[in-house]
Amino acid sequence: MKIEYLNECTIESSESGDTILAIALSSSKNHTHECGGHARCSTCRVLVLSGEENLGPRTTEEKTLAEAKGFPSEIRLACQTKVYGDIKIRRLVIDRDDIETAYGERGVERGSERKVAILFSDIRGFTNFSERNLAYDVVHILNRYFKKVGDTVLKNHGYIDKFMGDGMMCLFGLNETDPKKICHDAVTTAIAMQRELSTLNEYLKQQFFGEEFKIGIGIHFGEVILGEIGHPEKHQVTAIGDNVNQASRIETATKKAKAYILISEEVKEHLSGQFQYGRTFQAKLKGKSGHYRLREVMCN
């Protein structure tokens, strides 16, 4: 029976039914296991590259920790996983930095691929507003704005990924798999955000001598890498990948198009007839080759 550690070594053993960790340690293989092999720290975790059928099922202890950490099926705890045939694995915790990262994790799914709708929004000309007004007022108005539009995101089953100055990135589909429902929620949110802005603009006109905000919103649907990213003291679930960048570029395209909401063709194909559409564009997106078909969604 062979246990191949990718880019490290291969261990041959006749101890069928022992755990990966026990076999490694009996062969003098340095395999991280901070808690002593009791399924409490997860630092012995490995990625199974092949031979998954030669592994025993998860123990109760491994199931508990895997669920808490959000591990997919191919990530196993070496201290709990029994081996009955040839396998190929890769250690996931190598050094002290990896150990500290493992301890800092929270109970979320880690490094999964997911199809989601990504919404980017941005206030037009906010820099000019901030230059004309007191710092307190700028922060107050921005928080008032984010409260209003953020409520619409949460109401429509979205997740607020991050705030970037006066911009916002949101995800739809973290707890939903139906593309139609995901895209419907995202576009419904965009329309609701524009309506909330109308209410805020009434306040601005009265309190700030006729000031008025306009926002551009871009939405795209596609596969992203979803995971908890950041420093152990400050990290959160976020999405990365080319489709995130494309959604951002669509939001940027609203400026040149003088549109309030633009969606990609990937979003449009999952929507039914309850939305009203305006112009159709063959747009060149910054940093992307070729042209992309974008649709304008009307707010009324």
Describe this structure in words.
It is found in: Cell membrane. It comes from Leptospira ognonensis. One of its GO terms (molecular function) is iron-sulfur cluster binding. This is Adenylate/guanylate cyclase domain-containing protein. The protein is α+β, with helices and mostly antiparallel strands and 300 residues long. Helix 5 (135-155) runs antiparallel to helix 6. The longest helix has 29 residues, at 179-207. The chain folds into 2 domains: 2-103, Beta-grasp domain (Ubiquitin-like (UB roll), Roll), CATH 3.10.20.30; 112-297, Nucleotide cyclase, GGDEF domain (Alpha-Beta Plaits, 2-Layer Sandwich), CATH 3.30.70. The protein has 8 helices and 13 strands. The model has no long low-confidence stretch (mean pLDDT 90).
Q: What is the molecular shape?
A: elongated
The count of strands amounts to 13
CATH superfamily of the largest domain: Nucleotide cyclase, GGDEF domain
Distance between the termini: 67 Å
Q: What is the domain total for the residues? A: 2
**Helix-strand category:** alpha+beta
Main sheet characteristics:
8 strands, mixed
CATH topology of the largest domain: Alpha-Beta Plaits
Q: Which oligomeric form is depicted? A: single chain
Topology order in helix (H) and strand (E) letters: EEHEHEEHEHHEEHEEHEHEE
Keywords: Cell membrane, Membrane
InterPro entries: 2Fe-2S_ferredoxin-like_sf (IPR036010), 2Fe-2S_ferredoxin-type (IPR001041), A/G_cyclase (IPR001054), Adenylyl/Guanylyl_Cyclase_3/4 (IPR050697), Beta-grasp_dom_sf (IPR012675), Nucleotide_cyclase (IPR029787)
Domain Guanylate cyclase: 117-251
GO molecular function: adenylate cyclase activity; iron-sulfur cluster binding
